[in-house]
Structures are given as C-alpha cells and as structure tokens.
Amino acid sequence: MSANAITLKRTDNYDPDFKQLIALLDEYLAMRNGEEHSFYAPNNKLDRLDTAIIAYQNSLAVGCGCFKKIDSDTIEIKRMYVKTEIRGKGIASKILGALEAWAKELNYKYSILETGVDFDDAVNLYKKAGYVVIDNYGLYVGKTKSLCLQKIL
Fold first, then answer.
1. pLDDT of res. 151
2. Distances (CA, A) of 143 to 40, 104, 107, 137
3. CATH number for the domain that contains residue 16
C-alpha cells in the first residue's frame, strides 16, 4: 500500500474521528452559508447512526460521510466532508461509493441528499456519481439555496 493510500472504516457517528471531522465541517458550513446557517445547522444534528464512514490517509482522518434511513427503500446521505487541504484527490467519491454500497447491502433502493446550490464541487461530485436533481423534499421545500438530488442504487 502506498504512503498516501486511502483506507475507509465503517463506524458510527459517535466515533471521535468522525466527531472531529464534523466539527470542521460545521465551521466550513457556517462560513459558506452565512446568514442561512441558522436554518441549516439544526438539520445537521443526527441521532445515533451506525452507518458512518471515515476516510484515513497515513492513519489520519481526512474525510467522512454517513447515511440515515428515510423509509424502507430510501436513505439520505449526510455529513459528507473532506479536509480542505486534500480535496481533489477522489476521496469524497470513495466515501460516497462506500456509503452507497453499504446501503445496497442493507437492501435500500434509493439515495437522496441535499446540498447547497452554490456548492459547485459537491454538485459536480453527486452528478458525476449518477445523482439527478429532484424537487426539494422535507425541510428543504421552498429553500432556494438548497438543491436536492436522488440516485437509484
């Protein structure tokens, strides 16, 4: 294995490495979302989930993501993040692919998610992975800064 190889670990959202990455994500989102952050922040609080993934490079946690059950057929991708200084190396794609594979193992058929309309890197990641834009769902209905997407797993 090369020195810069990425390894993925399945865990839960109480994992200390996951929590550390989420703190960085929350800081990043507060900066990017500005005044809108007060709406989005409560939506990002999660009950205990056993479906989180952490990406490691050289034993350092560098990225994460998780999913939660929406219904018997659908999961929602949440808390996708890769440290700013190492973006552009395909780590987010690996995390997303691993989350989707895990959801398929659990017999889910659809994956949905929400991202910001101005988050070009995220939108491109999801579209490249086969997600298509859908009507905003749930708390995001009527939110013009939100973009919702779906993929058939």
1. 98
2. 10, 30, 31, 10
3. 3.40.630.30
77 burial type by CB count under 10 A (0-12 exposed, 13-18 middle, 19+ buried): buried
How many angstroms separate the CA atoms of 128 and 105, rounded?
22
Residue 63, token pair as written in the block: 């990225």
Q: Tell me the pLDDT tens digit for each residue of 47-92.
A: 789 999 999 999 999 999 999 999 999 999 999 999 999 999 999 9
74 strand-pairing partners: 110
- Assess if residue 1 is contained within a domain: no
Q: Based on the number of CB atoms within 10 Å of its own CB, is 45 exposed (0-12), middle (13-18) or buried (19 or more)?
A: exposed
Residue 129 lies in a domain: yes
Q: Which residues 6+ apart lie within 8 Å of 46 measured at CB?
A: 13, 66, 68, 78, 79
pTM for the structure as a whole: 0.90
Which helix (DSSP H) or strand (DSSP E) does residue 97 occupy? helix 91-105
Total number of domains constituting the chain: 1
> Per the domain annotation, does 44 fall within a domain?
yes
Distance separating alpha carbons of residues 111 and 105, to the nearest angstrom: 13
Structural domain boundaries enclosing 69: 6-152
